[in-house]
């Protein structure tokens, strides 16, 4: 898989992808994350990528020219399955969307900034608009990191234990059951006996019951879906 991220703050993204699972996923050849500095594509001699909104009002708007030039340069190299714009008015991100995006080959993610992008960018290029929640961030970069992380960890081979992503919360619309590790007792708090029993079928059953109870009490909306 290849993910191209378009941003006016490339440094913010580079550090995020240089650590832990995301770094290993790239070194292992499971994903290629390429960050593009929007300022490299502007025709403006002062390297500006934004301007005042027509009609007045507060805040700046990202111009279409650098974005169009960048996207077209990428499209000249390969075909993209989706061109995603991170925006608080997009569809709310969930596990179903990340599962389906993890099956794609090439993605572009555009990070918005200021008051957003010129509407014609959305009309001309964007195939999917994603929000990571009902709150407004200073820019789409953090949202792009969240989306990329959620996708990349699903790619086969990226996690050491391949079943690990399958038992995450939200797969099957259930929250994950509680987990424990050594010691078996800490300040009088004991790990449930069943987990120490070695009885695999009974442990699976217990975990399923716990997942169900946890979902019912914390996120009953997931069970209604
Ligand atoms: N950009 C700013 N806020 C955002 C959000 N909540 N989700 C996605 N992109 C954003």
From TrEMBL:
Catalytic reaction(s) noted: guanosine(37) in tRNA + S-adenosyl-L-methionine = N(1)-methylguanosine(37) in tRNA + S-adenosyl-L-homocysteine + H(+)
E.C. number: 2.1.1.228
Sequence similarity: Belongs to the RNA methyltransferase TrmD family.
Any one GO MF annotation of this record: tRNA (guanine(37)-N1)-methyltransferase activity
Pfam family, one: tRNA_m1G_MT
GO BP terms in the entry: tRNA N1-guanine methylation
HAMAP family (UniProt xref): TrmD
Enzyme class, first EC level, given as a word: transferase
Role of this protein: Specifically methylates guanosine-37 in various tRNAs.
Name of this protein: tRNA (guanine-N(1)-)-methyltransferase
Gene: trmD
Residue ranges of domain tRNA methyltransferase TRMD/TRM10-type in the record: 1-224
UniProt cross-references to InterPro entries, sorted A to Z: Alpha/beta_knot_MTases, tRNA_m1G_MeTrfase_C_sf, tRNA_m1G_MeTrfase_TrmD, tRNA_m1G_MTases_N, tRNA_MeTrfase_TRMD/TRM10
UniProt keyword terms in alphabetical order: Cytoplasm, Methyltransferase, S-adenosyl-L-methionine, Transferase, tRNA processing
Subunit structure: Homodimer.
Organism for this UniProt entry: Spirosoma terrae
GO cellular component terms given for this protein: cytosol
Domain of life: Bacteria
Subcellular location: Cytoplasm
Residues engaged in binding S-adenosyl-L-methionine: 112, 132-137
């Amino acid at each position: 898989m290849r993910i191209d991220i378009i941003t006016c703050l490339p440094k913010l993204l580079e550090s995020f992808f240089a650590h832990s699972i995301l770094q290993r996923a790239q070194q292992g050849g499971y994903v290629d994350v390429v960050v593009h500095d929007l300022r490299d594509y502007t025709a403006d001699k002062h390297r500006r990528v934004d301007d005042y909104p027509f009609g007045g009002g507060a805040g700046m708007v990202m111009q279409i020219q650098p974005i169009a030039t960048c996207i077209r340069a990428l499209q000249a190299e390969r075909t993209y399955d989706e061109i995603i714009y991170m925006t608080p008015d997009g569809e709310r991100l969930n596990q179903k969307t990340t599962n389906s995006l993890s099956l794609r080959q090439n993605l572009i993610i555009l990070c918005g900034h200021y008051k957003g992008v010129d509407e014609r960018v959305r009309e001309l290029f964007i195939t999917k608009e994603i929000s990571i929640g009902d709150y407004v961030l200073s820019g789409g970069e953090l949202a792009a990191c969240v989306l990329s992380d959620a996708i990349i960890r699903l790619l086969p081979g990226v996690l050491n234990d391949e079943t690990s992503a399958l038992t995450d919360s939200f797969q099957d619309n259930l929250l994950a059951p509680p987990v424990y590790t050594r010691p078996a007792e800490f300040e009088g708090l004991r790990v449930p006996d069943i987990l120490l029993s070695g009885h695999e079928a009974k442990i699976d059953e217990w975990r399923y019951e716990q997942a169900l109870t946890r979902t019912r009490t914390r996120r009953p909306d997931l069970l209604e879906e």
